[in-house]
Each structure stands twice: as C-alpha cells, then as structure tokens.
Amino acid sequence: MGQPARGTLKGTIKDTETGQAVVGANVTLQGTFLGAATDANGKFSIVRVPVGVYSLTISMIGYERLKMEGVKVANDEVRSLEILIHSVPIQSEPVIITANRREQSFQEVPVSVSTVSAKMIADRNNITLDDALRYVPGVNMMTDQVNIRGSTGYNRGVGSRVLVLLDGLPYITGDTGEINWETIPMFEVERIEVVKGAGSALYGSSALGGVINVITRETPAESEFRFRVFSGLYDKPRYPEWEWTTKPRFNSGIVGSYSGGTASLKYLVSVGRTVDESFRENDTYQRWSLFAKAKYDLSSTQSLTIAGNYLYRTHGNFFWWKSLQEPTRPAESQRDGLVTSDRGNISVAYKEFISDRFFYTLKGIYFGNFWRDDSAGRVNNVSTSHLFSVDLQATYDANTSNTLTFGIAGNYDRVDANLFGTHPGVGAAIYAQDEVAVTGEIKLTAGLRFDWERVSVLKGTAQLNPKIGLVYMPDKETSIRASVGSGFRYPAIGELYIESSTNVSAVVVLPNPDLKVESSLSYEVGINRSIGSMMVVDVAAFRNEFENLIEPSVQIKRYHPNPSSSYEVEGPVIQFDNVTKARIEGVETDLRVEWWKKWFSTDIGYTYTWPWDVADNQILKFRPRHILYAGGLVSWDRLRASVDFRYLSRIERIDENLVRLAPIVDGDARVAIKIVDVRASYDLIDLGYPLRVGFNINNLLNYSYVELLGNMGPVRTYYLTVEGLF
Amino acid sequence: MMKRTSVLIIAVFFLSCDHGLAPPPSVEPGFGGTLYFEKGTWPSPDSLFDLWVFASQVYPLDSSKVFQGLFSNPPTIYLYPAFDKSLPFFVDSVSYSFNVPIATYKYIGIIQQFATEINIHNFRVVGLYGTNDTPPIPIPVIVNEGTFTPGIDFRVNFRKPPPQPF
Q: Does ipTM exceed 0.90?
C-alpha cells in the first residue's frame, strides 16, 4: 500500500488597503487540523495536505474573517495563493465559540458577548481570572463572586449563577457549586469569552446569568520558554488608624512555561508560585500551581488533547473585618483561621472530522477539590468533592446555510464533608441546536436541551430549556440581534445539606433539602455597528426574569442544637431558601474608538440595570444599578500605556438581618466603587532582549471601598512585571 | 467628538476624587435608638415603679440569673438609665443612648417593675429587640471597641408583652 497522495498549500496574505504583509494571521483548512500562521513577511505554508478540495479560513484580530471555498490541492503539487484581507475597525476576537458551541464571527452571534484577550490580561497584570473580569461591561465582582447583569446577589460564591467553562467543560466545584478562579492557569489563557444572559439551552445547570468560557492557548508548534515575574507592594491604607502593621506588604509571583514537541505531538508545561502577604491581617496566601497540556494529532482529521492542572494553597481565613474602625483586621474569631486546599483537574478531548461538513468532539473532565479550615490548631471544616463530566458533541454543516449542533452530556459528583455530609449526585442531558441562514442577511438559531439530575436520596428533577435567536445583518457594518433563552440551576450540595455552627460566627446554619431549582428567562435585543473605520458601538436592551432564587436568609426555626440532642431550641438561623422572584431589566452600551492612526484607543462600557424584587416589591438586594467602565490605551512603537476607570453605584439594599446576625460590625458600610488603574509597559526587543517590562499602579487614588460586606477592597498597589520569551 | 470624549473621561476621573469609606468617629461603645410606646397601653401609675432598657449577655435567662447577672463583677446584665433611675412614664417615645462594655448582648429589651418590692416576681419584660415573628425572637447585638450601634428601636405595648424569661 503506497503513501496517501498529498500536496502543499502556501501563500502570502496582505492588507487590501496598504498592500503590506499581514503578520500572525491564522490560516486553517476547514474539516482538518491542518493550518499555519503567517510569518514576518506574511507568508504561510501548509505541508502534507491530503489531496482534495478545501475551504480555507483566514482570521486575524483587526481584520475581516475570510473564507475561501474550493481550494484544490493535487498530488505533489505546491499550490500558491495571494490573499488580500480587509482591515476592520477595532473588534473583539474575530471568532466566538461559546455562544453557539462552535466558531462564529462576532457579528453572527445572537446574544451579547464580551471577550478578554491574553494581551489584555498581561497588560493589566491580572493574577487571577476574577481580576480580569472586573473590566467587562455588565459584569461586577463581589471579591471572587461573579455577577453578570445583576444575576447574583450575596452568596459568598456558593451556588454560582454564572457557569464557568474551562475549554468548554463545566468548571464548578462539586460541593458548593462555586467557581474556583485560582485553579485556572492565567498565564496559559488565550482568551475569555463572556456570554450574557441565560445559556442553559446549550450548557445546562448554572447558566442562569451567563457563561464564561476560559480558553487555554494552543500548544505552539515551536519550542519556547516563557516566564513572567511580578512583584507588588501594597501602599498604606488611606487613614493611619487603619494600619495594622508597619512592615511593607508584598504580593509577588513567578510563572514559567515551556512548550515543545514534534509535528504531531505538542506539549506545554507551566509551573507557578505566588505569595501574597495582603494588606490585611491574616489574609496572606501562598500557592503552587502546575498546568500541563499535550495535543497529539493522530492524523490530519483526528486529534487528542490531554490537559491538567493542580493547585496547592494556604490562605488566611479573613472572612470579614473587625469593624470599620479596623477594617484591615479580621473579626476576633478569624484571627488565626487558615484554609488549606488541594485542587486539580484532568481533561481529555478527542476531536475527529468525519468530513469537511461533519465533526464531533468527545470531552471529559475530572475536577477534584479538597479543602479544610483550621482555627487555633483545630480542624473545623473539611470537604472533599469529586466531579466528573463528559460531553459528546457533533456539528454538521448540512449545507452552507444550515448548521446542526447536537450532543449528550453526563456528570457524576460526590461530596464528603463534615459541613455537608456524604452525598452523590448524577445528571444527564441531551441537546440540539439548528442555525439556519433564512436569507443572506438573516440567520435564525433554535435550540433545546433536556437535563435530568438527582442529588443524594432526593427525587430526580428534569428541566427542558429552549432558546431562539435571530441575527439580521442589513450591511457589512451592522448586525442586529434578538434572542430569548432560559436558564436553570440545580441547588448545590452545599446549599442543600450545609449544617454548621460556622467557625467564623456563632450563627447556626441549617440544611434545606427541600430547595427547588432556580430558573430564569432572558430576553435581549441589540445592535452592533461599525461607524467609519475607527468606531464600533454596541447597544443592547435586556430583561431577565428569575424564579425561586436561592439565597441565604435569616429565619426563625426550631432545631436540635447538636445532632445527638433530644431536645429542640428555637432561634434565628441562616438557611438557604428559595426566597425570591426577581425581574432585572436594563440597557448596556459599549463604545470603542481608535484615534490618530490607531495609536490611541478608548473603550467605554455602561450598564444600567433595574433589579426588582418582585416578591418584596422593592429593589433587589446586593445589586448595583450603574456599572461604568472607561479605558484608554496609547500604543506607540514599543510603549504601551493605559488607564482604566470603573464605577459601580452604591448597592442600595442589603440583607440587614445577615449583617446583624453574623454579626458583621459596620457591615452595612458601603459606598460607590470608583477605581482608577494605570499601567505602562515597554518592549526591550530592540535592545536585543526578548523581554517586556511593565509597571502598574492599581487603585491609583487609594480609594476605600467594599465589594463584599465587611471586606475592604485592595489599597493602592504598585506592581513591577517582567515577561520574557525565548 | 474627540474633545467631548476626552472631557467625559477627565470628568469621570475627577468624579473619583472623594476617598470612599472613612473611619467612623471615635465613640463610646454601646447602642441606642428610640422607644415607642403604643398609645393607650400605659398601665396605671400604681403599677409603674421603674422602667429600664436592659442588655444581657446571657440568654436564655431564668430567675436565678437575673440578680446574679446584675450584681456580679463584672455584671452580665446592664440597665439604662441606671438601677436607681427610671425611663420616663406616659410618653409616646423616648430616645436613649446606652453605653455598655464590649461584649455580645444576646437579650435586649425593656423591663418594668410593677410593684414596690425588688423581687423577680415584680418584674416583667414589656419590650424586646427581636425579630418580627410572633412571638419575637431575641436578636443579639455585638458591641465592639469604638463602635456605637444606632437603630436599636423598640415598640412597647404594655398589654402585649413578649414571652417572659422568668
């Protein structure tokens, strides 16, 4: 049997207007894993291409995505192409994959999507993912709890209403259903996609408020070593009486990454160490992290990717402050608390193109979490959780105007914790979505997902979630979108079964196995329009309706003071309960402008939400009404300098009973958040060093604020960063 | 357009020139608020000898713990205005400011002495800082150094006293 017939495809990509070579453009052959990036002269070469007729896709940030049909490759032939691509006004990533579980251009997506690129993360010196999300329109963080367009109130991360995916797979802890940001390898992130609005029709539980997909970078073809070293120094708090120590406090870290391999096997290994002394007492953390990823191209149409990470961390247990008089000290009961955690995951993804119109992906992930908190040398709470998820997805391009995506998914988790008990959970789902180009300008999307889940001995529950979307593109500059979708969230095992007299408070927390499933319905209309060659504006109006929202609430109950007691007492307790029904309406705008031949750019995003508690007939607790982000970036030669401002209006309503019963002294103290960050970096490549040096000042004005009750935000911090690539 | 955007950015920047949270002024620790007496419920003068706000670190209370709490060293139960002084009678409302040592006060309320003799059987609780449930459940108040908690209000209806602890 002879060698299969193969040829070579090469060419040059140039800018239509300037005629100059386009560097770093991605060229891929649809239906295969074959592809290349253009070099410094705009040239690319794809060798050993099986004989056939292909669709060629060219994508590059700042350029229109181009698809060339009918590119023929003959045996032993070297096919040469001259390709011209149009530059477009500033855009987000040219390709979005999260909105519809497949690659699409930004304009084709019927829902609001924002992206954070690896470059934005590096420029801002973001250490964890939650830091990177603080400048996404419509998103606000309460320390490490994410809230998209008002979906989430105060839950200290438990039971996230935003689904986080790591390379398309659910990444929510099995016990408390929260997002563990730290285990996501920031140095290896290619981009983050934030899809706003309910997304359970494609992704299942937790996608009530939106979906955040963290996409790790592809293992590069060439061997390279990258590193990043940073050291940050916390300034003193604004008021001398808030100083708890006279010693300088640092936040430093190093991460190194090596990648290499052969033509068919590529791998990447990354190791990191971070030590944050914090500006607050007993808030220090130390962590080690390891990330590895390998991709093996079994053939031009089959690939296997295995990735995993591990994190070990110790963290002081600063839960809330002592008082506003001493906001940098924890409450007395938390002064010697320490949380130790081991967390890790391993994922496997197999992808195969059956033809240039049909491919499928089989993915699986194991996510293990162990943590314990100690206080005064005594172990208080211990939790171990295991979560397995699998997803088999197929995508079929029935013809040029019809794409069908369908699949099945399953999950199994098991929790063993003194706080929650020992409980298993199991779930299964089936989903399908069809995208039809009704005309050249109109694209319709319809999808449906059925989910079933059972937790421990509780009765299994089923959910059916539809979505429908429409995109109308009257011209090349304009995209009008509309969508309706539903979302739901199964209560986390932690919410159902938590039972404790917590180590940080004398308050009794009781389980509630009668919790119902939360649900949401999202409506959105929006328009994205390029104005001239330097401006892009996006405007969206949305309405989200939530039912059975689960929140911790103060209730008066009769309960056994301890499991072995034969008598009951009556008193105030905290319990997770389906407390409210809500309606959140709002408007979101994003305006990006490039000035003076693109060396200066500005981005302003504003979100107005009207979060209404329908059950209480008053404003919903813990939601800001206004969120504004404004940023400017100067990019001149090797210098990049930028400034970011974020404003979140004062939260109008909180749960006074929680503050009173916890108790959090001065827990109702809060103001609007107004933070200015500035930074500059310089590339030393011209001096012969493959290095970039950066300097950041976060919270330039040393503004004092809280994101979460009784937790003061970071003081002014100075960072020096050095990055290298060899 | 450029100028307008620049002005907007600069305006937004200067909006952030306040400094946010600040330390509260130094105060004597304690709590305070207003007592509201429901009209027409005051008892006859011959059953009004003293009226106090009490703050107890101990809960639940029984009769044996009341005087022990009042007269131990340090006390675990405090009275406002003082053991030998009373709140005014036959008023619609009165504000109070109760300075107490740093501690958690699990049971706070209004107590009436309705007979001459100082005896536990001559005391009754007529108001309670608690939940809105029926009957109300006491809500603890934590008093920290340099912290004075306002808003600890009571609504007293002498005809509908809360559950008695003794």
A: no
